[in-house]
Amino acid sequence: xxxxxxxxxxxxxxxxxxxxxxxxxxxxxxxxxxxxYKQPPSGELVFLIRRNSFDxxxxxxxxxxWNFQKSTSSxxxxxxxxxxxxxxxxxxxxxxxxxxxxxxxxxTTLQVKP
Amino acid sequence: xxxxxxxxxxxxxxxxxxxxxxxxxxxxxxAMYWYKQSAKKPLELMFVxxxxxxxxxxxxxxxxxxxxxxxxHLFLHLHTLQPEDSALYLCASSQEAGLPHEKLFFGxxxxxxxx
Lengths: 114, 115
Known about the structure:
The complex is a heterodimer. Chain A is mainly beta. Chain A is 0% helix and 52% strand.
């Protein structure tokens, strides 16, 4: 069975704070991809990042960084120096190499206050 | 012009009405999807089309009827809906269907309320 857990339902920070969104993906698949999507109030989900299960190298892209640890099944996403425009719902979404389907987590609502 | 466009943005309908949701993608993709997003629930995949052929139907009730006349257009025909069908319906597209590395491009959704 596959299970994706975003334990944080809501997070509230003040602008310029760093914030980390947690995601745990439990699966018996040996190969898979991990995605993060952002859903602003306008409704459309926007692709942010994609990693494959073979690559545990952590990366930074602008204010975004991510930390993937296969041993703990965690794929965390960090926003540095948060801005009000970062306020949105963030979804962790693994996809199975077997089915090709995305499995969406429950989402974490991030509120960045000025 | 945005990549994936959905109309209408909002729809209120009675349980006996018939309505249709429209989705159009301008990205040259071969796969299109319908997702349902209800409050407090994860996104649920409803239908997948690849080159106008339905390749996935996730046990969706027959009161939801999809149509894909070409690779750029996708419809969701609605009839005799129930109040629990009220949700945000999202359309998405990708280059191909069924590949785990494919990223999806979403529309802004249609917020449906069934009275």
